[in-house]
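Thread: "does anyone have the structure for this chain?"

Original post by V.I.:
We have the sequence but no experimental structure in hand. Need at least a predicted one for the grant figures.
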Amino acid sequence: MLDKLADIRREYSRGGLDRKDLNDDPFVQFEAWLKEIIATGLPDPTAMTVATVDSAGQPSQRIVLLKDVSPKGFIFYTNLGSRKAAELKSNPRISLHFPWHLIERQVKVCGVVEPLSTLEVSKYFLSRPRESQLAAWASEQSRPVSTRQLLMSKFAEVKDKFAKGEVPLPSFWGGYRVVPHEIEFWQGGEHRLHDRFVYRRQSDQSWTIERLMP
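Reply from O.Q.:
Generated one for you, tokens below.
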């Protein structure tokens, strides 16, 4: 089977994308596409790849969930001791990718991050399921752990510690707003002649739109 990898392909035929189909505001356009993918019932429609770069120039990617979007930017949360947080501290440049293959679309975002306020983080943290709150306390994200049993033991300790009352916001848990300067919308096309449009933010905060070759 693996010797046939080069032969695995499919045709993209759901329809094209033209300039007239796009809103002048990339956030309005993104929200329209996001609503469409959510309506399909696709599992984890808000999942996005987050790419960061370390001090040596080594890129790293992982999948997180988009938790809010507005004209201010795209929001996600994480452990501030994680690899991504460490890399963003030294280099705030970031890229997001939404792989909506079910509807033959992709969205790519390039920008920089700004940390969310404690109030914003606390409001979201308190809205999470209790088990997710406890997991945030139990996991030293990106740190080595010898066995899963050790992780579950730590989770049990935390669960016992906060058995009564609300689970407090950990000091090492936070969030970021990705402020984009570039957003690209990709629609699959027949014969690999895909439609790509990129929005670029200008110095006056307006956006230009340009079609790209596939």
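V.I.: this helps a lot. The chain is about 25% helix and 35% strand.
O.Q.: and The mean pLDDT is 95.
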